[in-house]
Specification:
182 residues; alpha+beta; 10% helix
Length: 182
């Protein structure tokens, strides 16, 4: 019978020719050449590059306090404590075309998602939660002050750090940078 000499393989628990992990790691670190140069490139050429400096937002996102849904902008102080209240409809605030007037007590403005909150309002009642009667709406006491409103800078505030230096630029990061006007 012949004895077969086996070479080390992946089936073995130990390979006598293997390198210690710490020594291997040191070899890798000794051969890394850091990148020290930077360059500015157009955003469309930034994919798979690395951020050289921290990136901070120069704007608020959203840029203005706005409605999170279609409904009616009111003053929180006009929410009834019990029962219901009636409001006079005085206009409409569209996304991109704000309502220019002021909202007085017991008045409301029809507001669309993303529209800037009219002066003196701080709450949006969902359109599904009102009863409409001619130029008036009726709401009940189940509303909460400040509901359905997104504050300016709620997602990203002016001067917030949005990307650290050394971040690897993937598509989502490039979209973020573009949305901030950078």
């Amino acid at each position: 019978m012949t004895n077969i000499k086996y070479d080390p393989s992946c089936m073995d628990d130990y390979d006598p020719a293997s390198m210690d992990a710490e020594i291997a790691q040191q070899h890798i670190l000794d051969n890394i050449v850091p990148v020290i140069e930077t360059e500015s490139v157009p955003l469309r050429d930034a994919l798979h590059r690395v951020v050289a400096d921290d990136i901070r937002s120069a704007i608020n996102v959203p840029s203005h306090t706005n409605s999170a849904m279609d409904g009616y902008a009111i003053r929180a102080s006009d929410i009834p404590q019990s029962g219901s209240s009636e409001f006079k409809l005085t206009g409409t605030a569209w996304a991109g075309r704000p309502f220019e007037g002021e909202v007085n007590p017991d008045e409301c403005v029809r507001i669309m998602t993303g529209a800037a909150m009219p002066k003196n309002t701080d709450t949006v009642v969902m359109q599904e939660h009102v009863q409409i009667n001619d130029n008036r709406i009726i709401i009940d006491a189940n509303q909460k002050p400040g509901q359905n409103v997104r504050q300016a800078g709620e997602d990203i505030a002016d001067d917030d750090l949005v990307l650290y230096n050394l971040n690897y630029l993937q598509a989502a990061y490039i979209l973020l940078i573009a949305s901030l006007g950078i």
